[in-house]
Structures are given as structure tokens and as C-alpha cells.
Specification:
The complex is a heterodimer. Chain A is mainly alpha-helical. Chain A has eleven helices and no strands. In chain A, helix 1 runs antiparallel to helix 4, helix 6 packs antiparallel against helix 7 and helix 7 packs across helix 8. The chains are: A mainly alpha, B alpha/beta.
Chain lengths: 251, 299
């Protein structure tokens, strides 16, 4: 029943996220023929950091595999999934959910409560990342293109492990603040700041977004094990800090 | 034989950001009693209940429920397995229906009483399919009580259980508590601002003021020991100090001297004979008077 409660706490965020991401994935695939036409009139000689990146995206889009990676894993999924990772991380936490005192009066330990809540959120995040990403290989034949299921799975796995850092961060912040807004805003501000650094420094080696998009796998075929391990460690650290915080605090 | 205590606190202190919510609270609630917990707003009633249930940790001192240390996470689980709590706000999961929250709670308590569930569903006229956010405060209170009463708990801890209820429903709830408490192996520890409620159903009373228990004991004993003694003199009442034990307050007004005693009247009446009063009148004191007297003593 605790799983069920956890599902009820998060279901709207999850379902809205799933709907949006599935639509976004479908749109990414189905607009590719139009993108190909637009590539012919794309300007070649513009300057500046962002223009360079646009030019790079244009170059990547000439090949379907590059287009999917650039538009889906590096942009659309990165933006939406980060947002929903934060939203799922902050949903239904003890301090600001109605009935917190009722929950705490039940014979359930606080670590178990948090464990179930985190597991539910991560399971939902897993679906949010994998389901739309797997829609891409399924829809691609509709535009006479193909995209490997294995590639989609590897990118999704890397993405899920990296984006879980934002989930865990939001989860931790939710145990610190009693209102639902500050954890949400702080986690989103951090995600935005990291994205800005990533854009300005052109995806430095330590960038979480670089791990998220599995750029090394796309460019060289090597899975970014170091980045994935660091991401998993950061997530675990945030999670244990959240548990330690909730165990010691008064309600 | 000593009474078996279900709740016991010894020199319990709790400080929140430098504010002392509890200041050496000593509390003894015997098994099988219905104990009313009285105190003004901010006296420390809710803090005490939260410490007993492991929601807050004491700064110092001990809190024991069923003989288990309330500040131990493992023991606290066992305490919550054997007890039920209704908070003052009666906050439940607003998005669940009445039926869902009953099933959710029942699943966590192996001794859940289906017979009581049916009885209270009928008695409280709870709409199973309505979501909790659409319920009135009174109906939410009734639902919270159902969830507490059906757990097969050995201890009910209720924070203002009748707040938000109309007088008829409040009476119904009180009667349910008395029936439940009387017919089961159950201890009820409840806070209330309604002294009449405590007077009506409690057999033990604890009055807390500024984080300390100022009065504690069986209600019958309190009623027996508290007396108001009125002496009327021919002239102005004399200035005097009583040596007899239990003198809580002495008020002089014209020819009348009134003494409030917490240890019966005999010793005081005997001592006052030397003052040659014209008449002596000894009257019992209500719980309301005892409460007002004990919480205003330091003002």
C-alpha cells in the first residue's frame, strides 16, 4: 500500500511528463523530413558560441543518427527529463505533503518511507527516459529511416543514470525545506546553471549533460563509464544525505 | 501493587530554536485509564504527544510508552504498531477517497477490526467514494477517529479529538471513546480545551502549564482533595498565613476569607478556628476551577 500511496503522490507529474515526452519524441522523428529540407537553406558563415553550436547541429542533422542524438538526447530529452526529474524528486515529500503527521504515526520507519518514495520516483523517471527513447526506433521506419534499438537503450541508460543526479538533488532539497517551492526552484536553478556552463564551455569533460547525452558513445562508441560512476555516486550521496536528514529531524 | 504505566515521562525537556516547549515534564498514565491532558495553547501538549510517537526527539529526559524508549527508532516502530494517533489538524491524504485511506491504513495493522470499521462507517455516516479533500472538517475528524479506533491499538493518543465537531457529534465521539475504552484493553490519552469533555469521560487528568505537569492524578482523587473553604467574619477578614499543607490560594474580600486547598479542608478549618470565624463553608471545586487555578498560578 505504501507503493500505491507513493504512486498516487507522483502520478500526475509522471503521466504529464510521459505524455509530453512521447509527443516530443514522436515530433522529433516525424519532423526530420522537413528538417532535411531546411538544411539546404541554413546559413554557413555566422559567428559566436551559439551560432557555432547551431552550425554543429545542422551538420549533425545531415545524418539521421546525428540528428536523433543532437535533437533528442542532447536537447529535447535533456530539457524535459531534467524538469520532470526535479518535479518527481520533489513530489509528495514528508514535510510538505498533506498528512505528514498521519504518515509518521504509522508503523513505518522513515528510511523505509523515503526508500519507497525514491524507488517509485526513479522507476517513473526510468519510464520517462526509456519509453520515449524507444519510440524513436519504432517510429523511424515511418519516415524511411532507421535507428538501432541497442543504440537507443545505451543512450537511455546513460541518460537515466546522469539525470538521476537531479532527481536525488531535488529529493535531498525536499527534506531540507518545508515548502514545495524552494527545493523545486533551487534544483532547477542548479540544472540551468550547469546547462549554461555546458553550452558556454562546449560540453567540458566533467559536464553532467555530456554524460547525460553519452557524447563519447555517440562520437567514439565508448560508454562514459567514469561519468556514469561519478553520477551514480553523486545520486547515492544525495540520497543518503536525504535519509540522514529526515531521520534526525523533528516534525 | 504499583499501577502499570502505559506512558511515563521523566524530567522531559524539549527545546525548539531556544524556546523551551517542555521543561522537565513528569507524566504518568496508568494502563486502562482515560487520561485527559489539559493545558493552555502552547503549554506543550502537542509536543509531548509527538515525542511519545517518535515524531520529535526530546532534548533531555526520558519518554517511555509501553515501557519502550520513545526516542529509539526501533522501539518507536513498536510503539506506533500498538498505538493510534489523531492529530489536531486531522490532516489525511487529501487525494485519497475514504475507502482508499481505510484500505491503506488497514493494510498496515494486522489487528485491524473490520467489525468496528463497519460500525463506525455507519455511525459516522462516512461517504466511501468521496475524496478526503471534499470532506468537511467534521467529517474528516470522524474519518481520522475511525482510522484510529479500528487499528486494534492498545493506546489511543488524541490531540483535540472533538475540535471541528458540532456538539451532537462531539458527544457521539466522546461516547464512542468511553465505550471503546471501557470495553477494550485500551488506554486513551487525549488533549482538549474543553474541560467539560475531560470532566465527562476522563478518569485521570494531567494539567500541563509552561512545559511542566502542575496537576496529575485520578480525577476522583482531585475532586476529593480540592476544596474551597469560605470563612465569614464579624469584621474585616484577618490577614493570615496558613501553615496547613495544600493551601493553593488565599483571597480576602471584606468579611470573607476564601482558601483554595488541594489537600482537603480539615487541617485548614482546624487551623482557622483560632481566628474565630462566624461561619465556615466547605464546597467541592470543579475541574474547571482547578485548571484555571493551576495554570494562572505563575501569572
Amino acid at each position: 500500500m505504501l507503493w500505491y500511496k507513493s504512486w498516487l503522490d507522483t502520478r500526475w507529474r509522471f503521466l504529464i511528463g510521459l505524455g509530453l515526452l512521447l509527443c516530443s519524441a514522436a515530433a522529433t522523428v516525424l519532423t526530420y523530413p522537413q528538417i532535411l529540407k531546411l538544411l539546404q537553406i541554413a546559413p554557413q558563415n555566422v559567428g559566436g558560441v551559439f551560432a557555432q553550436q547551431i552550425r554543429e547541429s545542422v551538420e549533425l542533422a545531415r545524418e539521421y543518427r546525428g540528428y536523433v542524438w543532437s535533437n533528442w538526447f542532447r536537447q529535447n530529452l535533456a530539457q524535459w527529463a531534467t524538469l520532470f526529474a526535479v518535479l518527481l524528486g520533489t513530489a509528495g515529500m514528508l514535510a510538505h505533503s498533506g498528512g505528514a503527521i498521519f504518515t509518521l504515526s504509522l508503523p513505518i520507519s522513515r528510511p523505509r518511507l523515503l526508500g519507497i518514495r525514491a524507488a517509485t520516483g526513479l522507476a517513473e523517471l526510468f519510464v520517462l527516459v526509456f519509453a520515449p527513447s524507444l519510440l524513436i526506433p519504432l517510429l523511424s521506419p515511418a519516415i524511411r529511416q532507421s535507428y538501432g534499438v541497442e543504440t537507443a537503450l545505451i543512450h537511455s541508460a546513460c541518460f537515466f543514470i546522469a539525470v538521476s543526479v537531479f532527481f536525488s538533488l531535488a529529493f535531498l532539497l525536499s527534506t531540507i525545506f518545508d515548502d514545495p517551492w524552494r527545493p523545486l526552484l533551487i534544483a532547477l536553478a542548479i540544472a540551468f546553471a550547469l546547462a549554461l556552463v555546458d553550452k558556454l564551455l562546449r560540453a567540458p569533460a566533467f559536464s553532467l549533460y555530456r554524460v547525460m547525452s553519452a557524447e563519447t558513445y555517440f562520437r567514439t562508441g565508448h560508454v562514459p563509464w567514469g561519468g556514469l560512476l561519478a553520477s551514480a555516486a553523486a545520486s547515492a550521496l544525495f540520497y543518503y544525505a536525504a535519509v540522514a536528514n529526515i531521520v534526525r529531524r523533528d516534525f | 501493587m504499583a499501577e502499570r504505566l502505559i506512558i511515563e515521562t521523566i524530567d522531559l525537556w524539549k527545546t525548539y530554536d531556544g524556546v523551551e516547549a517542555l521543561r522537565g515534564l513528569n507524566l504518568h498514565v496508568p494502563a486502562g485509564s482515560i487520561c485527559g491532558f489539559l493545558g493552555r495553547n502552547g503549554a506543550g501538549k502537542t509536543t509531548t504527544m509527538k515525542i511519545l510517537l517518535g515524531m520529535a526527539r526530546p532534548t533531555s529526559g526520558q519518554a517511555r510508552v509501553f515501557g519502550l524508549a520513545a526516542d529509539s527508532p526501533q522501539a518507536s516502530l513498536e510503539i506506533r504498531r500498538r498505538s493510534a494517533f489523531v492529530s489536531e489538524e486531522k490532516e489525511l491524504y487529501s487525494y485519497m477517497t475514504v475507502d482508499e485511506i481505510i484500505r491503506f491504513t488497514a493494510a498496515l495493522f494486522p489487528r485491524w477490526r473490520d467489525d468496528l470499521q463497519e460500525r463506525y462507517l455507519r455511525k459516522f455516516e462516512l461517504p466511501l467514494t468521496r475524496t478526503i479533500k471534499t470532506l468537511s472538517r467534521g467529517t474528516r475528524t470522524k474519518l481520522a477517529l475511525l482510522l484510529a479506533l479500528c487499528r486494534g491499538a492498545e493506546l489511543l493518543i488524541l490531540d483535540e479529538p472533538t475540535s471541528g465537531l458540532d456538539p451532537a457529534m462531539a458527544e457521539e465521539v466522546l461516547q464512542a471513546l468511553v465505550r471503546h475504552g471501557g470495553g477494550e484493553e485500551l488506554t486513551v490519552f487525549f488533549s482538549s480545551h474543553q474541560i467539560a469533555e475531560v470532566d465527562q469521560i476522563a478518569d485521570h487528568v494531567v494539567i500541563i502549564d509552561r512545559g511542566r505537569a502542575v496537576i496529575s492524578g485520578a480525577l476522583d482523587d482531585l475532586r476529593e482533595s480540592f476544596r474551597r473553604i469560605q470563612f465569614v467574619f464579624d469584621g474585616d477578614a484577618p490577614q493570615t498565613t496558613f501553615r496547613a499543607p495544600g493551601v493553593e490560594r488565599v483571597v480576602r474580600k471584606g468579611r470573607v476569607l476564601t482558601v483554595l486547598s488541594s489537600a482537603g479542608a480539615d487541617a485548614i478549618v482546624e487551623e482557622a478556628r483560632a481566628l474565630q470565624p462566624r461561619s465556615v463553608d466547605v464546597v467541592p471545586v470543579t475541574l474547571r476551577e482547578i485548571f484555571l487555578e493551576s495554570v494562572s498560578a505563575e501569572d
